[in-house]
Write a structure and sequence with these properties.
- By secondary structure, the chain is an alpha+beta fold.
- It folds into two domains: about 100 residues, no CATH class; about 60 residues.
- Helix content is about 50%, strand content about 15%.
- The chain is built from eight helices and three strands.
- Strands 2-1-3 form a three-stranded mixed beta sheet, with no helix packed on it.
- Helix 3 runs parallel beside helix 4.
Length: about 180
């Protein structure tokens, strides 16, 4: 079970993180759109975590170990329940691991690539979308931090993977104009 969280940063309340799938199966939804759970807002049976190998501590998964675990649980048919009620806070801090969004995006991509490799046959038709969405998320993180040139490169990489959308084109135009998002 996973509940929603209030985002708090610099002593102020911000947005609300609402978790859960947007469409498709939970496994495919997370590969396409990223993590749909928060470790601090999730309760999971210990025996289920042990059965599926717990957190994978590979160096390239650092900051995304939970994402990999949720993917493995979803792939193996685990049921997920989302309680759309704010029962906790997600505190943003310059010291937090996920504050290093570049490292986190690279870890997310490594997790996606590992799953694409492990389940190549069943995921082949989604490969471009998965990698394109991953590149787009990386580009957005760079863009938000003001790294317009690097963001533009990642937006182009997303296009090469087959991710093309109106929001990508708008984001690219904003990056060229050096407008922060």
């Amino acid at each position: 079970m996973c509940h929603d969280e209030q985002v708090v940063g610099n002593g102020r309340q911000g947005s609300i993180n609402m978790y859960g799938p947007t469409s498709e199966t939970m496994y495919l939804d997370m590969l396409l759109h990223g993590n749909r759970l928060s470790t601090s807002a999730t309760t999971v049976r210990t025996d289920l975590v042990r059965k599926h190998g717990g957190f994978d501590e590979r160096r390239e998964f650092f900051t995304a170990e939970d994402f990999d675990l949720w993917l493995r649980l979803a792939r193996n048919g685990s049921q997920f329940l989302f309680l759309h009620e704010i029962l906790g806070e997600y505190t943003l801090s310059g010291m937090s691991m996920t504050a290093n969004s570049e490292r986190h995006c690279m870890a997310r991509r490594a997790v996606c690539c590992a799953h694409l490799e492990t389940h190549a046959e069943s995921l082949e038709t989604y490969r471009g979308r998965i990698l394109g969405n991953s590149e787009y998320a990386f580009a957005r993180a760079l863009h938000r931090s003001g790294q317009h040139g690097r963001a533009l490169g990642r937006y182009r990489a997303a296009m090469r993977e087959g991710f093309v959308s109106a929001r990508l084109l708008v984001a690219m135009a904003l990056a060229v104009a050096r407008v922060r998002v």
